[in-house]
UniProtKB/TrEMBL annotation:
This is EF-hand calcium-binding domain-containing protein 7. Pfam families: EF-hand_7 (PF13499). GO terms for cellular component: ciliary membrane; plasma membrane protein complex. GO terms for molecular function: calcium ion binding. InterPro entries: EF-hand-dom_pair (IPR011992), EF_Hand_1_Ca_BS (IPR018247), EF_hand_dom (IPR002048), Miro-EF-hand_domain (IPR052266). The lineage of its organism: Eukaryota, Metazoa, Chordata, Craniata, Vertebrata. It is found in: Cell projection, Cilium membrane. It is a peripheral membrane protein. Residues 187-199 have a biased composition (Low complexity).
Amino acid sequence: MFDCSVLQQAGRNPSQKTVNKYWTSQTTTLNFDDFCTILKKEKPATKTELLEAFGKIDTDNTGYILHDELYKILTTRGEKMTRDEVSAIIKQGDFNCGGKLDYNKFCDLYLRTSEQCCKTAREKLEVDSRLRQQQFGNQTETSSEGFIPPVSKPSPRISRKTDHKPAPAKGDSRTPSRPSSAQSCKASVSTSVSVGAGSNRNTKLIEPDTMKEWQCAQSKGCFYLEEDGEIISHKYRLHLPQRSAVCITIKPLNLRQAEGKSCHWLSVDTALYILKENETQENLQLVSFTEQQNKEVFGWKGELGSGVYWLLPFTTGCRLKKVKTQVTGEAKLVYRGEDGELVLTKEFRAALLDIFETIDLDGNGLLSLEEYNFFELRTSGEKCDEDAWAVCKENFDMKKNELTRQGFMDLNLMEANDREGDPSDLWVTLLSLGYNKALEMTEACPFVIDIYAEKCKPRIKAVYLEAGSWQLNRAVCKSVVNKGEAKVMDGCENIIIYTYKAGRRITSVIENKSDNKVIIHVNNEQSKNCLSNRGLTVFAVEVAPKSMMVSQHVMPLNEQEEWLYNCVHSLLR
């Protein structure tokens, strides 16, 4: 729920109706840019407006309102106040006397309090700014043009230890700031795209008949949703020993689900960006991405030369996002059998089998040390070394130095026994893998990648499990710029809006060619049957000088119905 105190510190006092306008059922977070937009639209009340409102009650223009009348109005009309809230107002000695409220004095105190809130907030910002400069230096963040190879690092999840505490959420990397005074132009660009019902599910992904004879490589992976809404996933290195025609596809992994369990992730959009490695990892070039679609499968066909490529999975976040759902009760994970020994419940065993299926990246029915370490990094932030793996080999079922399904089950049972049946650590594992307390996978999306090559055997290897890097963001932007429709803002030729539709996804990118940062107001209020990754119909985006960034991704809310994308990008002064 939106915290009104933030707006109150900026001198606003919004009604619940006003709050609901900005915090819709799809909203999960509001960033600083969104906050600035709200402040621009919701002006602070003036004394004249306040006196006019009170004057509608005080029709005789006495300057006073009887407490009994005020009590009746505030508890029965509009957004009703409680008896205690009204009592707190009429007990204030500054503007109450003899059973009456002096609304002139009330307005004066209201405005002084509002101004003091703004002043206090400004002073705090100035102190925070000085502290940041002392700690980090007065520097602005810049991005390198070259590719920085990802560094394998533990996900900021919760420790397995019983006294676990949530890792601190990552803050927005952008420096909060107001629009530059150098922005002199006032302009907007309107884009409208209408899509018929069902037409967005197929964009001519046709597999050649001869592909059945092509050599294939496959790997699974997963998108995981972090506490702060960030999405992390596996990243892959692809090696082609010689030039060949290839077909690369990605789709959500269809796991066996227990009856009554919904497969939320099957509706999640997936994509792969293909980047060519030139001599070193520091130099990657965007080749293409999986823009063709056949139902839930996204693919790309073409010819690739020999060499090393990086495959970067991507999802827009339109469907894979934080959603507050009511979960009645908590699923039972373990119980004690007749002999007093701990046993995994049927439901927990089913969830573990799905987890095993997801983390068994090569699909051979066994977990290698590398595959198991992706699981460990995700759930505990630590890796299992060779010595620890040797201990596992002595205690759990393995084949060819790889953990079997039964061994994986026994490993989790051992963890339950270590805590004498306390499921806390087991829940840490499940929650970090996207499960809720009803054992439903709601914050993860497993996927499978297939690479077919006509003339050689392709090799694919999962290398990292981490958040989308800047090179992925750059690839997304470049793909939209290369294939999308460009519109220049009238009167502001340095600002260009690119819009690209691929299957059931529309992406817009803002390019700022000027020497000043700009803040772009984005309005989707005229769109119909649309779902944005921003979670808002109206928001603002700050774009650094000489840079470009994604404005938003949009998908249909209901794919069986027609949808209309109607977006206006405006330059804020």
